[in-house]
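So, can you check?
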Amino acid sequence: MESMGKTKHRRPRRSFTPEFKAEIVGLCRRGDRSIGQVAKDFELTGTVVRDWVKQARVTRASATG
C-alpha cells in the first residue's frame, strides 16, 4: 500500500517506568477488572499489559525458586 503514495504515520514509542508497570500488573492481579479493561483505562494495548503480567509472573517464579 505504501507504493500508492500513502505513508503510514506511527505513534511514537512510549516508555514506562518499572513502577508504572508494577502498578498496572497489581491492578490486573487484584481481579476486579480484566486485563482488557485495565489496558483501556490507561490507554494501553491489551497485548502490552498481558506481556507485563506474564513477565511479572516469570520474574516472581524465578525469584522464589
